[in-house]
Amino acid sequence: ARKSATLVQNSLLLALTMATELDDDASWAGREFDEFNDTSGDDDQSINYTGEQALNRLAFALGGESVVPVIMGKLPGMLQGGSGAATGAGGSWQYRRAAVLALGILAEPCKKQLKG
Fold it and tell me: Which of helix, strand or coil describes residue 79?
């Protein structure tokens, strides 16, 4: 049981860390909001997209009792721009973005645990 708990925790933290892998792009400054939601690009091949999808699938497959304690333990540091998901230097918008995204991803499959 301990090995599976460690596997779950490591998988969730890896997915959360992958969701932070997004580079700054100078061209974003002049774009309209709708352009960011264009799904015709290659987002489905990016590391951050893969991390978001993995987190979503793990949340649905494992349920809130396994997922919420691990993720909620990391979010406060991430919301402050720190690397709450991994060791190392943090302090970026990518961590805040991944934290907010994680809350949105967990909202449906883990709503019971998030309310309590």
Answer: helix
